[in-house]
Amino acid sequence: MDLRHNEIEGNSEPTQSLGQTSHLALDIGGSLIKVVYFSISRDNCIDREQESSANDTLGFSNGNCKHPILQGRLHFAKFETSKINDCLEFISSKKLHLGGFQHHENPGKNKNFIKATGGGAYKFTELFKENLGIDLDKEDEMDCLVAGANFLLKAVHHEAYTYIDGQKEFVQIDQNDLYPYLLVNIGSGVSMIKVDGDGKFERVSGTNVGGGTFWGLGRLLTKCKSFDELLELSHQGNNRVIDMLVGDIYGGMDYSKIGLLSTTIASSFGKAVSDNKELEDYKPEDVARSLLRMISNNIGQISYLNALRFGLKRIFFGGFFIRGQPYTMDTISVAVHFWSKGEAKAMFLQHEGFLGALGAYVSYAKHSIDDLVCNQSMQLPVSASYTADPNYNPLNGDFNDNESIQCSVYAA
Ligand SMILES: Nc1ncnc2c1ncn2[C@@H]1O[C@H](COP(=O)(O)OP(=O)(O)O)[C@@H](O)[C@H]1O
Ligand SMILES: CC(C)(COP(=O)(O)O)[C@@H](O)C(=O)NCCC(=O)O
Known about the structure:
The protein has 412 residues and is α+β, with helices and mostly antiparallel strands.
Protein backbone atom coordinates (compact mmCIF):
# COMPACT_ATOMS: atom_id res chain seq x y z
CA MET A 1 0.00 0.00 0.00
CA ASP A 2 1.43 3.32 -1.01
CA LEU A 3 1.99 5.30 2.16
CA ARG A 4 2.73 8.45 0.27
CA HIS A 5 1.02 11.31 1.99
CA ASN A 6 -1.44 13.36 0.01
CA GLU A 7 0.14 16.49 -1.31
CA ILE A 8 -1.09 19.47 0.64
CA GLU A 9 -3.20 21.84 -1.37
CA GLY A 10 -1.49 24.87 -2.82
CA ASN A 11 2.00 25.10 -4.06
CA SER A 12 3.58 22.08 -2.58
CA GLU A 13 5.91 21.60 -5.51
CA PRO A 14 9.40 22.89 -4.64
CA THR A 15 9.84 26.12 -6.55
CA GLN A 16 13.06 26.91 -8.36
CA SER A 17 13.00 30.65 -7.69
CA LEU A 18 16.31 30.76 -5.82
CA GLY A 19 17.91 27.82 -7.50
CA GLN A 20 16.93 24.55 -5.97
CA THR A 21 15.04 25.54 -2.83
CA SER A 22 13.80 22.23 -1.62
CA HIS A 23 15.66 20.66 1.27
CA LEU A 24 15.31 17.07 2.17
CA ALA A 25 16.17 14.91 5.16
CA LEU A 26 15.45 11.24 5.83
CA ASP A 27 15.05 8.89 8.78
CA ILE A 28 15.31 5.34 7.45
CA GLY A 29 14.13 3.06 10.25
CA GLY A 30 13.52 -0.62 10.67
CA SER A 31 9.88 -0.30 9.61
CA LEU A 32 9.36 3.11 8.01
CA ILE A 33 11.21 5.76 6.02
CA LYS A 34 10.29 9.24 7.17
CA VAL A 35 10.84 12.14 4.75
CA VAL A 36 10.89 15.81 5.68
CA TYR A 37 11.30 18.44 2.96
CA PHE A 38 11.01 22.19 2.74
CA SER A 39 9.57 24.02 -0.22
CA ILE A 40 8.97 27.69 -0.75
CA SER A 41 5.26 28.41 -0.78
CA ARG A 42 5.97 31.78 -2.39
CA ASP A 43 9.03 33.55 -3.64
CA ASN A 44 9.15 36.32 -1.12
CA CYS A 45 12.66 36.30 0.18
CA ILE A 46 12.81 39.07 2.71
CA ASP A 47 16.32 40.36 2.37
CA ARG A 48 17.90 40.37 5.77
CA GLU A 49 20.61 42.72 4.54
CA GLN A 50 18.51 45.59 5.77
CA GLU A 51 18.21 43.82 9.10
CA SER A 52 21.85 43.31 9.77
CA SER A 53 25.09 43.67 7.90
CA ALA A 54 26.74 41.63 10.61
CA ASN A 55 26.72 38.46 8.60
CA ASP A 56 29.41 38.11 6.03
CA THR A 57 27.96 35.31 4.02
CA LEU A 58 27.81 33.80 0.62
CA GLY A 59 25.52 35.39 -1.85
CA PHE A 60 22.99 33.45 -3.77
CA SER A 61 24.46 32.47 -7.08
CA ASN A 62 21.16 32.89 -8.84
CA GLY A 63 18.94 34.52 -6.28
CA ASN A 64 17.76 38.09 -6.17
CA CYS A 65 18.70 38.72 -2.54
CA LYS A 66 21.69 37.79 -0.51
CA HIS A 67 20.25 37.01 2.88
CA PRO A 68 16.69 35.86 2.33
CA ILE A 69 14.21 34.68 4.84
CA LEU A 70 12.32 32.21 2.70
CA GLN A 71 8.72 31.59 3.57
CA GLY A 72 7.73 28.03 3.01
CA ARG A 73 6.44 24.84 4.49
CA LEU A 74 7.91 21.70 5.94
CA HIS A 75 6.25 18.66 4.39
CA PHE A 76 6.10 15.16 5.81
CA ALA A 77 5.82 11.79 4.12
CA LYS A 78 6.41 8.19 5.14
CA PHE A 79 7.01 4.93 3.28
CA GLU A 80 7.43 1.36 4.42
CA THR A 81 11.15 0.61 4.49
CA SER A 82 10.40 -2.61 2.57
CA LYS A 83 9.08 -0.39 -0.27
CA ILE A 84 12.10 1.91 -0.46
CA ASN A 85 11.76 2.15 -4.25
CA ASP A 86 8.48 4.05 -3.77
CA CYS A 87 10.45 6.54 -1.67
CA LEU A 88 13.18 6.87 -4.29
CA GLU A 89 10.56 7.48 -6.97
CA PHE A 90 8.82 10.09 -4.79
CA ILE A 91 12.09 11.99 -4.22
CA SER A 92 13.05 11.75 -7.89
CA SER A 93 9.62 12.79 -9.21
CA LYS A 94 9.68 15.93 -7.04
CA LYS A 95 13.38 16.59 -7.70
CA LEU A 96 13.83 16.93 -3.95
CA HIS A 97 17.36 15.55 -4.13
CA LEU A 98 18.42 18.35 -6.45
CA GLY A 99 18.08 20.99 -3.77
CA GLY A 100 21.00 19.53 -1.93
CA PHE A 101 24.33 20.89 -0.87
CA GLN A 102 27.75 20.69 -2.47
CA HIS A 103 30.89 20.45 -0.44
CA HIS A 104 32.71 23.77 -0.64
CA GLU A 105 36.12 22.18 -0.75
CA ASN A 106 35.29 20.34 -3.97
CA PRO A 107 33.12 22.82 -5.90
CA GLY A 108 34.14 21.18 -9.13
CA LYS A 109 33.07 17.80 -7.88
CA ASN A 110 29.31 17.73 -7.92
CA LYS A 111 29.11 15.83 -4.63
CA ASN A 112 25.47 16.29 -3.68
CA PHE A 113 24.45 15.00 -0.30
CA ILE A 114 21.36 14.92 1.88
CA LYS A 115 21.11 14.38 5.62
CA ALA A 116 19.91 10.99 6.74
CA THR A 117 19.58 9.13 10.03
CA GLY A 118 18.40 5.70 11.19
CA GLY A 119 19.98 2.35 10.48
CA GLY A 120 18.83 2.51 6.88
CA ALA A 121 21.13 5.47 6.23
CA TYR A 122 23.95 2.94 6.40
CA LYS A 123 22.14 -0.01 4.86
CA PHE A 124 20.91 1.87 1.76
CA THR A 125 23.85 4.20 1.06
CA GLU A 126 24.64 2.56 -2.29
CA LEU A 127 20.99 2.43 -3.37
CA PHE A 128 20.66 6.21 -3.03
CA LYS A 129 23.97 6.76 -4.79
CA GLU A 130 23.01 4.51 -7.70
CA ASN A 131 19.43 5.73 -8.08
CA LEU A 132 19.65 9.43 -7.23
CA GLY A 133 23.36 10.18 -7.44
CA ILE A 134 23.45 11.49 -3.91
CA ASP A 135 25.43 10.67 -0.82
CA LEU A 136 23.70 10.16 2.51
CA ASP A 137 25.40 12.34 5.10
CA LYS A 138 24.71 10.30 8.21
CA GLU A 139 23.61 11.77 11.52
CA ASP A 140 23.35 9.79 14.73
CA GLU A 141 19.84 8.49 15.37
CA MET A 142 19.67 9.46 19.04
CA ASP A 143 21.07 12.94 18.30
CA CYS A 144 18.35 13.40 15.70
CA LEU A 145 15.50 12.12 17.87
CA VAL A 146 16.43 14.58 20.61
CA ALA A 147 17.09 17.48 18.22
CA GLY A 148 13.76 16.84 16.49
CA ALA A 149 11.85 16.68 19.77
CA ASN A 150 13.52 19.82 21.15
CA PHE A 151 12.85 21.72 17.91
CA LEU A 152 9.16 20.78 17.90
CA LEU A 153 8.64 21.45 21.61
CA LYS A 154 10.18 24.91 21.20
CA ALA A 155 8.96 25.91 17.74
CA VAL A 156 5.50 24.46 17.24
CA HIS A 157 2.64 26.01 19.18
CA HIS A 158 0.35 22.99 19.45
CA GLU A 159 2.81 20.11 19.56
CA ALA A 160 2.56 18.35 22.93
CA TYR A 161 -0.69 17.07 24.33
CA THR A 162 -2.06 14.76 26.97
CA TYR A 163 -4.62 12.07 26.17
CA ILE A 164 -6.41 10.18 28.91
CA ASP A 165 -9.98 8.91 29.39
CA GLY A 166 -10.83 10.08 25.88
CA GLN A 167 -9.75 13.66 26.56
CA LYS A 168 -7.07 15.33 24.44
CA GLU A 169 -5.55 18.53 25.81
CA PHE A 170 -2.69 20.52 24.31
CA VAL A 171 0.04 21.44 26.77
CA GLN A 172 1.85 24.75 26.51
CA ILE A 173 5.51 24.07 27.17
CA ASP A 174 7.48 26.84 28.87
CA GLN A 175 10.76 26.85 26.98
CA ASN A 176 12.54 27.85 30.17
CA ASP A 177 11.12 24.85 31.92
CA LEU A 178 11.42 22.23 29.20
CA TYR A 179 14.26 20.18 30.66
CA PRO A 180 14.74 17.56 31.93
CA TYR A 181 12.28 15.17 30.35
CA LEU A 182 12.15 11.55 29.28
CA LEU A 183 11.73 10.96 25.54
CA VAL A 184 10.34 7.53 24.68
CA ASN A 185 10.53 6.76 20.98
CA ILE A 186 8.35 3.79 20.08
CA GLY A 187 9.52 2.63 16.66
CA SER A 188 10.30 -0.91 15.63
CA GLY A 189 12.02 -1.04 19.01
CA VAL A 190 11.86 1.45 21.87
CA SER A 191 14.51 3.94 23.01
CA MET A 192 14.20 5.84 26.30
CA ILE A 193 16.28 9.00 26.44
CA LYS A 194 16.80 11.36 29.37
CA VAL A 195 17.02 14.84 27.83
CA ASP A 196 18.73 17.63 29.80
CA GLY A 197 19.17 20.25 27.08
CA ASP A 198 20.08 20.86 23.45
CA GLY A 199 22.50 18.07 22.59
CA LYS A 200 22.57 17.00 26.26
CA PHE A 201 21.00 13.60 26.67
CA GLU A 202 21.59 10.00 27.67
CA ARG A 203 19.86 6.94 26.29
CA VAL A 204 18.98 5.37 29.65
CA SER A 205 17.00 2.32 28.50
CA GLY A 206 15.04 0.67 25.78
CA THR A 207 13.06 -2.45 25.02
CA ASN A 208 12.82 -4.81 22.11
CA VAL A 209 9.07 -5.11 22.74
CA GLY A 210 7.96 -2.23 20.53
CA GLY A 211 6.10 -1.24 17.41
CA GLY A 212 7.72 -3.98 15.39
CA THR A 213 6.54 -6.50 17.97
CA PHE A 214 2.93 -5.32 17.62
CA TRP A 215 3.14 -5.30 13.83
CA GLY A 216 5.08 -8.58 13.58
CA LEU A 217 3.10 -10.64 16.14
CA GLY A 218 -0.15 -9.01 15.05
CA ARG A 219 0.45 -10.01 11.45
CA LEU A 220 1.25 -13.59 12.42
CA LEU A 221 -1.71 -13.94 14.78
CA THR A 222 -4.38 -12.17 12.68
CA LYS A 223 -3.11 -12.69 9.09
CA CYS A 224 -3.47 -8.94 8.51
CA LYS A 225 -1.89 -7.74 5.28
CA SER A 226 -1.10 -4.19 6.41
CA PHE A 227 -0.48 -2.26 9.58
CA ASP A 228 -3.53 -0.09 8.96
CA GLU A 229 -5.67 -3.23 8.72
CA LEU A 230 -4.24 -4.46 12.03
CA LEU A 231 -4.86 -1.08 13.65
CA GLU A 232 -8.44 -1.04 12.32
CA LEU A 233 -9.02 -4.52 13.73
CA SER A 234 -7.74 -3.45 17.16
CA HIS A 235 -10.33 -0.64 17.21
CA GLN A 236 -13.15 -3.17 16.95
CA GLY A 237 -11.88 -5.83 19.33
CA ASN A 238 -12.57 -6.60 22.99
CA ASN A 239 -9.43 -7.52 24.94
CA ARG A 240 -11.47 -9.04 27.78
CA VAL A 241 -12.29 -12.03 25.61
CA ILE A 242 -8.67 -13.15 25.75
CA ASP A 243 -7.04 -11.27 28.63
CA MET A 244 -7.43 -12.75 32.09
CA LEU A 245 -8.77 -10.02 34.38
CA VAL A 246 -8.36 -9.77 38.15
CA GLY A 247 -12.09 -10.39 38.38
CA ASP A 248 -11.74 -13.62 36.38
CA ILE A 249 -9.45 -14.86 39.14
CA TYR A 250 -11.25 -13.29 42.13
CA GLY A 251 -14.80 -14.30 41.16
CA GLY A 252 -15.69 -10.86 39.86
CA MET A 253 -14.25 -9.04 42.89
CA ASP A 254 -11.51 -6.37 43.18
CA TYR A 255 -8.23 -7.28 44.82
CA SER A 256 -8.51 -4.02 46.72
CA LYS A 257 -5.76 -4.74 49.26
CA ILE A 258 -3.19 -4.11 46.53
CA GLY A 259 -5.30 -1.63 44.59
CA LEU A 260 -6.31 -3.85 41.68
CA LEU A 261 -9.83 -3.48 40.31
CA SER A 262 -11.67 -6.52 39.00
CA THR A 263 -11.35 -5.00 35.49
CA THR A 264 -7.56 -4.73 35.70
CA ILE A 265 -5.73 -7.10 33.37
CA ALA A 266 -4.06 -9.75 35.52
CA SER A 267 -2.55 -11.69 32.63
CA SER A 268 -2.49 -10.67 28.96
CA PHE A 269 -3.77 -13.51 26.75
CA GLY A 270 -4.24 -15.48 30.01
CA LYS A 271 -7.69 -16.84 29.09
CA ALA A 272 -6.24 -18.61 26.08
CA VAL A 273 -4.62 -21.04 28.56
CA SER A 274 -7.87 -22.46 29.86
CA ASP A 275 -10.42 -21.78 27.12
CA ASN A 276 -9.37 -24.91 25.24
CA LYS A 277 -9.68 -22.94 21.98
CA GLU A 278 -7.36 -22.66 19.00
CA LEU A 279 -6.20 -19.38 17.49
CA GLU A 280 -8.82 -19.57 14.77
CA ASP A 281 -11.54 -19.83 17.45
CA TYR A 282 -10.75 -16.24 18.51
CA LYS A 283 -11.82 -13.17 16.57
CA PRO A 284 -8.74 -11.47 15.05
CA GLU A 285 -9.97 -8.13 16.32
CA ASP A 286 -9.93 -9.38 19.93
CA VAL A 287 -6.39 -10.71 19.44
CA ALA A 288 -5.27 -7.38 17.95
CA ARG A 289 -6.80 -5.43 20.82
CA SER A 290 -5.19 -7.61 23.50
CA LEU A 291 -1.81 -7.37 21.76
CA LEU A 292 -2.01 -3.57 21.47
CA ARG A 293 -3.00 -3.30 25.12
CA MET A 294 -0.22 -5.61 26.30
CA ILE A 295 2.55 -3.85 24.41
CA SER A 296 1.31 -0.32 25.21
CA ASN A 297 0.92 -1.15 28.90
CA ASN A 298 4.37 -2.71 29.03
CA ILE A 299 6.02 0.32 27.42
CA GLY A 300 4.10 2.66 29.72
CA GLN A 301 5.34 0.81 32.77
CA ILE A 302 9.00 0.60 31.70
CA SER A 303 8.86 4.30 30.80
CA TYR A 304 7.49 5.18 34.23
CA LEU A 305 10.21 3.13 35.93
CA ASN A 306 12.90 5.01 34.03
CA ALA A 307 11.27 8.34 34.81
CA LEU A 308 11.26 7.29 38.49
CA ARG A 309 14.98 6.42 38.33
CA PHE A 310 15.82 10.00 37.39
CA GLY A 311 12.97 11.83 39.12
CA LEU A 312 11.47 12.92 35.79
CA LYS A 313 7.87 14.11 35.85
CA ARG A 314 7.28 14.50 32.10
CA ILE A 315 7.45 11.70 29.59
CA PHE A 316 7.04 12.55 25.89
CA PHE A 317 6.14 9.61 23.67
CA GLY A 318 7.14 9.66 19.99
CA GLY A 319 7.46 7.15 17.19
CA PHE A 320 4.99 5.92 14.61
CA PHE A 321 3.70 3.09 16.78
CA ILE A 322 1.37 5.60 18.43
CA ARG A 323 -0.20 7.07 15.26
CA GLY A 324 -2.37 9.32 17.44
CA GLN A 325 -4.48 6.28 18.24
CA PRO A 326 -6.78 6.89 21.24
CA TYR A 327 -6.58 3.36 22.64
CA THR A 328 -2.80 3.25 22.44
CA MET A 329 -2.38 6.65 24.07
CA ASP A 330 -4.99 5.97 26.72
CA THR A 331 -3.32 2.69 27.66
CA ILE A 332 0.09 4.35 27.95
CA SER A 333 -1.33 7.31 29.88
CA VAL A 334 -3.23 5.09 32.32
CA ALA A 335 -0.14 2.92 32.86
CA VAL A 336 2.06 5.94 33.63
CA HIS A 337 -0.63 7.51 35.82
CA PHE A 338 -1.34 4.26 37.70
CA TRP A 339 2.25 3.31 38.43
CA SER A 340 3.37 6.85 39.26
CA LYS A 341 0.26 7.42 41.39
CA GLY A 342 -0.34 10.57 39.32
CA GLU A 343 3.19 11.92 39.87
CA ALA A 344 4.34 11.46 36.26
CA LYS A 345 2.48 12.59 33.13
CA ALA A 346 2.49 10.95 29.70
CA MET A 347 2.45 13.39 26.79
CA PHE A 348 2.27 12.83 23.06
CA LEU A 349 3.49 14.74 20.04
CA GLN A 350 1.63 15.84 16.91
CA HIS A 351 4.66 15.03 14.76
CA GLU A 352 5.36 11.82 16.69
CA GLY A 353 6.95 9.79 13.91
CA PHE A 354 9.10 12.53 12.38
CA LEU A 355 11.41 13.35 15.29
CA GLY A 356 14.44 11.71 13.71
CA ALA A 357 13.85 13.12 10.24
CA LEU A 358 13.36 16.64 11.65
CA GLY A 359 16.51 16.23 13.71
CA ALA A 360 18.40 15.27 10.57
CA TYR A 361 16.86 18.27 8.80
CA VAL A 362 17.98 20.82 11.39
CA SER A 363 21.44 19.25 11.45
CA TYR A 364 22.21 21.01 8.16
CA ALA A 365 22.44 24.16 10.27
CA LYS A 366 25.41 22.86 12.24
CA HIS A 367 27.59 22.94 9.15
CA SER A 368 29.53 26.16 9.08
CA ILE A 369 28.95 28.19 5.92
CA ASP A 370 32.61 27.55 4.96
CA ASP A 371 31.85 23.90 4.34
CA LEU A 372 28.94 24.40 2.09
CA VAL A 373 27.98 26.19 -1.01
CA CYS A 374 24.32 26.11 -0.25
CA ASN A 375 21.18 27.66 -1.54
CA GLN A 376 20.15 28.51 1.96
CA SER A 377 21.13 27.51 5.43
CA MET A 378 19.00 25.27 7.52
CA GLN A 379 18.65 27.71 10.36
CA LEU A 380 15.09 26.89 11.24
CA PRO A 381 13.10 29.49 13.08
CA VAL A 382 12.32 29.24 16.73
CA SER A 383 8.76 30.12 15.96
CA ALA A 384 7.48 27.92 13.22
CA SER A 385 3.74 28.19 13.14
CA TYR A 386 1.76 25.05 12.76
CA THR A 387 -0.59 25.27 9.82
CA ALA A 388 -3.14 22.57 10.24
CA ASP A 389 -5.87 21.48 7.92
CA PRO A 390 -9.00 22.77 9.73
CA ASN A 391 -10.63 19.40 9.19
CA TYR A 392 -7.73 17.52 10.63
CA ASN A 393 -8.22 15.70 13.90
CA PRO A 394 -5.17 13.67 15.00
CA LEU A 395 -7.49 11.41 16.91
CA ASN A 396 -9.11 10.28 13.70
CA GLY A 397 -6.38 10.42 11.18
CA ASP A 398 -2.74 10.12 10.57
CA PHE A 399 -0.75 13.28 11.25
CA ASN A 400 0.96 13.44 7.94
CA ASP A 401 -2.22 13.19 5.86
CA ASN A 402 -2.26 16.72 4.42
CA GLU A 403 -0.32 18.32 7.28
CA SER A 404 2.67 20.58 7.15
CA ILE A 405 4.44 23.24 9.22
CA GLN A 406 4.49 26.79 7.90
CA CYS A 407 7.98 28.10 8.54
CA SER A 408 10.73 30.38 7.39
CA VAL A 409 14.22 29.33 6.51
CA TYR A 410 16.90 31.84 7.33
CA ALA A 411 19.79 32.11 4.96
CA ALA A 412 23.02 32.45 6.90
N1 LIG B 1 1.90 2.25 7.79
C1 LIG B 1 2.69 1.57 8.66
N2 LIG B 1 3.40 0.50 8.23
C2 LIG B 1 4.19 -0.17 9.10
N3 LIG B 1 4.31 0.13 10.42
C3 LIG B 1 3.60 1.18 10.88
C4 LIG B 1 2.78 1.96 10.03
N4 LIG B 1 2.22 2.95 10.77
C5 LIG B 1 2.66 2.80 12.01
N5 LIG B 1 3.48 1.73 12.10
C6 LIG B 1 4.08 1.33 13.37
O1 LIG B 1 5.22 2.18 13.55
C7 LIG B 1 6.37 1.39 13.80
C8 LIG B 1 7.57 2.06 13.17
O2 LIG B 1 7.68 3.30 13.82
P1 LIG B 1 8.89 4.26 13.44
O3 LIG B 1 8.87 5.38 14.42
O4 LIG B 1 8.86 4.59 12.00
O5 LIG B 1 10.14 3.33 13.76
P2 LIG B 1 11.30 2.84 12.78
O6 LIG B 1 12.28 3.99 12.75
O7 LIG B 1 11.82 1.61 13.46
O8 LIG B 1 10.71 2.55 11.44
C9 LIG B 1 6.06 0.03 13.18
O9 LIG B 1 6.80 -1.00 13.81
C10 LIG B 1 4.56 -0.11 13.43
O10 LIG B 1 4.31 -0.58 14.74
C1 LIG C 1 17.92 -0.09 17.58
C2 LIG C 1 16.91 1.03 17.61
C3 LIG C 1 17.52 2.28 18.28
C4 LIG C 1 16.54 1.40 16.18
O1 LIG C 1 15.53 2.40 16.18
P1 LIG C 1 14.12 2.16 15.37
O2 LIG C 1 14.51 1.88 13.94
O3 LIG C 1 13.46 0.97 16.04
O4 LIG C 1 13.33 3.43 15.57
C5 LIG C 1 15.60 0.59 18.35
O5 LIG C 1 15.02 -0.45 17.63
C6 LIG C 1 15.85 0.13 19.79
O6 LIG C 1 16.25 0.91 20.63
N1 LIG C 1 15.57 -1.15 20.07
C7 LIG C 1 15.59 -1.66 21.43
C8 LIG C 1 17.00 -2.06 21.84
C9 LIG C 1 16.99 -2.28 23.37
O7 LIG C 1 16.51 -3.35 23.82
O8 LIG C 1 17.34 -1.32 24.09
